[in-house]
Structure formats: C-alpha cells, structure tokens
Amino acid sequence: MKGDFQELSNEQNLESLLTPNKNTVLHIHLTSTTSQTVSEEFVTKILKECGCLVLLPNAKRETVLHIAARYGHSNIAKLLLEHVKAFPPSDIEKGIGAEKKFMRATNNEKDTALHEAVRYHHIEVVKTLLEMDPDYSYDANNADETPLYLASQRQNQQVVAEILNKMKSPAYGGPNNRTALHAAVINQDIVMARDLVKNKHVRKAVKHADKEGWIPLHYAVKTGNLGLTKLLLAQDGNTAYMQDNEGMTALHIAAYDGDWLIMDMIIEYYPDCSEIVDKKGLNVLHYAVNGGSGTTVDIIMENLSLSNLYSEKDFDGNTPIHHLTNSNLMCESFVFHRRVDKLAVNKEAQTALDVAYCKIEDSDQSDFSSISITEDQIRLLKSARSKQSQRLDQKSKNGQEKTQRVVLTKEAKETHLLVATLIATVSFAAGITVPGGTIQDGENKGSPVLVQSSFFKAFMVSNTISMVLAATAVSIYLFTPVTRDKRKENAFSKTALVFTLIALAAMIIAFITGTYVILESSRVIAVAIFLIGLSSFMLAYYVVAFWHGYGKPLPPTCGIYLK
Crossing angle for the helix pair 123-132 and 74-85, nearest 10 degrees? Predict the structure, then answer.
C-alpha cells in the first residue's frame, strides 16, 4: 500500500477493511514500506479517521506496534504511542495507562513490541519503548527468550546497554534455563559480560545454572577464555566450587581440556577446589589424565599440596594411573612419580597394567594407531616397575597373542594387495602384447595372427577375467580402510581375497593357453607345458591340505581369512 489516503476516504468502516489474516490498512502499510518510504501523514489521517484501528490485532495477535517495531519505524512507533496515550480513562486498565497496556501486548508467540525491536536490531525503537515504560521487566516469550537475552545472544552491545541503563529490573532468562550472561560468555564477549555483571539485578546470573547445571563460569572455562574466567570469579568466588549435573566443576573442565593457564589460576586462588570429585568419584587428576594433556598433569604433579590426588580412587576403585589408557598420554613425570601407587588395584582387582592389557584384548583389530599407543603405555608402565600384574600369566599372554594376530592380519592385507596389483599388471601387459603377434599387412592389419585358434580365444577370456578380478580386488583393498565397521571390513577383505585367488587361477590358465597356442606346432612340448601348468593347482591344494591336516596355522599371506 503506497499510503494514498484518497483511495480509502470513501470507505465507511475502515476497521472492517481486513485481509484474510485480519491485517488492517495500517498493518499492510507498515509492512510494505521502509523507514524512508513510510508515510507519517497517511498513518495520522488513518488514526484521525478511525482511532480504534490502532488496537486491532491481526490473526497472529500482532498489533501495528509489533509491525512498526519489527521494521524499524521509530517515528511511527512514537506516533502510535502518543495516539493511544490520549485515549480516555474508559480505555485504561486499572492502574496502567493505555499506552503501557498497548506496549505490553503480546502476539501468539508472546512477543512484545520490544522483543521485535531487539530481535531486528532497531535501537531507536528500543529507546522509544524503554523511555515510555522503564518499570516493566518484560517476561520471556514462548521460546523462553527475554529482550535482554535476545540482545546478548545477538551480540548487540548498544541494545544491551540501553536495556541495562533504562530498565529498572530487566528479566534476563533464555532457553534451556540459560541467561543473558550465559549468552555473552558463550559468544566470548567480555565487554558485554562486564556490562551485565555491573547491573545489580543481572549480577545474580553469575550463579544461575542452565539445564545441564552449567553456570557462566563453566562456559568461560570451556571456551578457554582466561579474561572471562577472572571476571566471573571476581564477582563470586563460590562459583569455583559449583558443580554441574554430572558433578563437574570449572577446574575439572580446564584439566580435561588441557587449559593449564586457567587450571593453574583456579588452583592458586582456590586450592581446596581440587578436592571436589564428580558423581563418578573422579578428581581433577583423573580428568587431566583422561584429557591427555601432559602439561596439565605435570602442573598437578609438581604441586605437592595436591599429592593426595595422585593415588585417589574413583567409585570404581580406579586411581588416575588406571585411566592412563583412556588417552594418548605418555607422561613419565606422572608414571614414575614416587608418590603414585603403580600397583593399586581397582574393584575388579586390576592394576593399571591389567587395564592396559584388557584394552588390547577388547580393541578393534583395525585400529592400529590406538593399539600401538597402548603398547607404548604398557612398556612405560612396565618400566615403572608396575609389571607385577595381578592377572593370570595366561591372560597376559592372550593379550600379546591377539596383538600379534592384529599385526599378522595387517601384513596379510598388504601382501594380498601387492599380489592383486601384480596380477592386474601382468594381465594388462599380456592383453596388450598378444601371443603370436599381430598381422602387419593387408586389410586385417593389427589383428592377432592366431585369432582363429580356440586356445587363443581361451587365453583372451581367462586373461580378461584375471585382469578384471585383480583390479576389483585392488579397489576393494583400497576402499576397506575407509569403513569403521569391523564386520564389513572383514567381509570386504574375504571377498577381495577370493577375487585375488580366482584371478591368480585365471592368470595361470591364460599362461597355459597362451603358451600352448604358440607351441601348438611342437605338440610334445606344448602338451608338457600344459600339464606342468595344470599341476600348479594340485600342488597348491596339497600344500594347503598338508598345513591344515597337521593342525599347523596357515602362513599369514594365504590363510589369515580362512578361519
């Protein structure tokens, strides 16, 4: 709507002039114009002609003030409020002016005009609304968002400052029981966070926990922001001792994430915080070891006042050294420390070395890097004189045998890939350089000389089969490491091995038929080579039968998948 009042002057009843969504002419005009093209004259004439039109909401219960706030029509917002302010006492709710009731009106989402103005960063509209009604705290909408939370989440420093300066007691809640301070900390906006904690009402958010039990300090530590961490602790040092739903403190988070600067600072100013354990009984050293940061572990080990943590057990009886294999940590200062009990046992009567052996046994055979790291940790534990394992020697031997099987499997796969590649290479070369050569002259130039021979045809078919299956096996071997499913990986490997064996047999047949067709004129030699070639199948069969018959394990390159 362009704002031509003459087009509407003949309408007898403007309040009945509605769209299917119950938008009035004012809704349409404010929606379809910008701050530069909106017509104050048009709005003034409409209000003069039909003043009650301003109070009519649309189907979403949005007033024209919602629309003005959403699109940043600050002058129109002032005009609407001044118009409503002049309403007679009969239109005034008890104790509250009509303009305030108008401003506090909510739509179906329980958004007020201030919600809309903040959401779309219209600072002039925000100023107009706050100047008119600074006493109202503005509750959360259906999404649990208050205007202050929206401004903080959207990092609108100017709007946050305006709300804090103008509103006497602003509501600061947000979704998931978070607050505007949570949002500022998550965005790592230290300037906004400082402004928020200066407000005596909002300052209480320092100890406000969200649904996960995380207070703003937890998020400050998680993001690794030392400045925010200091700011929040300065407001209330007790927050250093506050635990989330899992029992974690900010110190636990810093230790696990390897943020040694924050961890060192918390320990320095709140040393007794290190004694707190989570709901599993894990202390700060447990977290540092599980996180795998050697620096954080070193800081704890160098602080003898924390020596009570070195061999403290969690609720499963595991000391920090039991948790060594949960990470890639190789920290000699920890393992060799004289106050660390290397032979401590958990509730399963296992030492740290036992736990490491169990991890080897239970690990995915394809995860070679993890197994290698665990083996290095086992050697470290043994060298630290913790090799007096409480487990039976047979179990330790089983773990070593399983590790050996993993290595053999890896070597077998590499060998199979090499064999398949060689077969594909030889078959390709044989297919290009055909037996007997090609015709050099005439209309059939380039065609194989022996193309009419049945043995030549057998050669070409068997050579093609060998080439295709070998190339397919190579592709499977190259693809197999991508999958994380152990069963699928084994199935792929078995399939590739079968293809390789068939390709090998086809290659032998191609050699026999190719040689025979060349030496067909020398029948005795051709037959002898034919029989010698076929004997390779019998020889392979008897070799496998011999190994299997005597109960001996097959060599890894030919029988690792035949179990």
Answer: 20
pLDDT, one tens digit per residue, over 392-432 is: 444 445 555 555 555 556 677 788 888 888 888 888 887 77
Q: Name 138's bridge partners.
A: none
Which are the contacts of 115, defined by CB distance < 8 A and separation ≥ 6? 138, 141, 145, 147, 150
Buried b / exposed e along 58-78 (16+ C-beta atoms within 10 A): beeebbbbbbbbbbbbbebbb
Whether 348 has a pLDDT exceeding 80, the answer reads: yes
Tokens 């118009």 correspond to 83
* 519: confidence class by pLDDT, cuts 50, 70, 90: confident
Single-letter residue type at 493? S
C-alpha 63, offset from chain centre = 42
Rounded Cα gap, residues 252 and 369, in angstroms: 28
Residue type, 169: S
Between 554 and 442, name the one with better pLDDT.
Answer: 442
Length of the chain: 563
Q: Please report where in the chains the tokens 């093209």 appear, as a residue.
A: 37
pLDDT of 26 over the 60 cut: yes
- pLDDT tens-place string over residues 73-131: 999 999 999 999 887 654 445 557 788 889 999 999 999 999 999 999 999 999 999 99
Least confident of 180-189, 250-259, 380-389: 380-389
pLDDT band with cut points at 50, 70 and 90 for residue 389: very low
CA 12-15-20 angle, 5° bins: 115
One DSSP character per residue, 479-509 reads HGGG---HHHHHHHHHHHHHHHHHHHHHHHH
Number of helices followed by number of strands (H, E) in the chain? 25, 0
Distance set, CA 171 to CA 166, 206, 226, 303 (Å) = 13, 14, 27, 44
Helix (H) / strand (E) element for 399: namely helix 393-432
At residue 222, what is the residue type?
K
Largest CA distance in the chain: 125
The burial of 272, by beta-carbon neighbours within 10 Å (0-12 exposed, 13-18 middle, 19 or more buried), is given as: exposed
| CB proximity list for 14: less than 8 A, separation 6 or greater | 8, 24, 25, 46, 49, 50, 53
- Output the CA torsion 484→488→492→493 (10° steps): 70
pLDDT in tens, 189-230: 999 999 999 999 999 999 999 999 999 999 999 999 999 999
Asked if 507 contacts 471 with a C-beta cutoff of 8 angstroms, the reply is no
In 3D space, the residue among 421, 342, 338 whose CA is nearest the CA of residue 381 turns out to be 342
Cα 469 from Cα 21, distance rounded (Å): 67
| Beta bridge pairs of residue 438 | 448
Q: In the chain, what are the domain boundaries?
A: 409-559
What the block records as the tokens of 563 is 């179990």
What DSSP assignment string belongs to 41-69? HHHHHHHHH-GGGGG---TT---HHHHHH
**CA angle (304 as vertex; 299, 305 as ends), nearest 5:** 105
Where are the strands (E) in 178-277, listed by range?
Answer: none
The whole-chain average pLDDT of the chain stands at 83
**Whole-number Cα distances in Å, 537 to 185, 361, 469, 494, 546:** 73, 38, 18, 20, 14
